[in-house]
Amino acid sequence: MFEGDWDLATASIHVRSLPEFDRTEELVAFEGLLRLPTGQLSVGDADSEVRLNDLSNPTRVRVYAAGESDFGATKVRIDFAPHPA
To answer: What would the mean pLDDT of 9-19 be, rounded to a whole number?
Structure first.
C-alpha cells in the first residue's frame, strides 16, 4: 500500500517489433540483447502492458528516450529485432 503524496514519472511508451532496426539519427539510450527462451516479453506497468510473442532468442533491443520532465523522459520508444544468425 502506498501512503503519502506521490509524484510519479509519466511517459508515453511505443513498442515496435521490426524485421531490422531502422537507420536513425536519434540518440539511442540503450542497445543490447535479451535472452528470451519462450520468445515472449511483456512491457508495461501496473496499469497496462503489451505482450510480445514469437520474438527470436536472443532478441536485439534498442531504446530511445526523448522529452524531459522533472522525473525523466516523457517519450520512450522500444524497438525489437531478431539477432542475425
So the answer is: 85
Domain that holds residue 33: 12-82
Residue 36 placed within a domain: yes
Distances (CA, A) of 73 to 24, 39, 58: 19, 28, 27
**Average pLDDT rounded to a whole number, residues 49-55:** 90
Cβ neighbours of residue 85 closer than 8 Å, sequence gap 6 or more:
none
Residue in 39, 40, 44, 42 with CA at minimum distance from that of residue 76: 44
Alpha-carbon distance 67 to 26, whole Å? 12
Domain count, the chain: 1
Q: Is residue 39 domain-resident?
A: yes
Q: Is 69 helix (H, G, I), strand (E, B) or coil?
A: strand
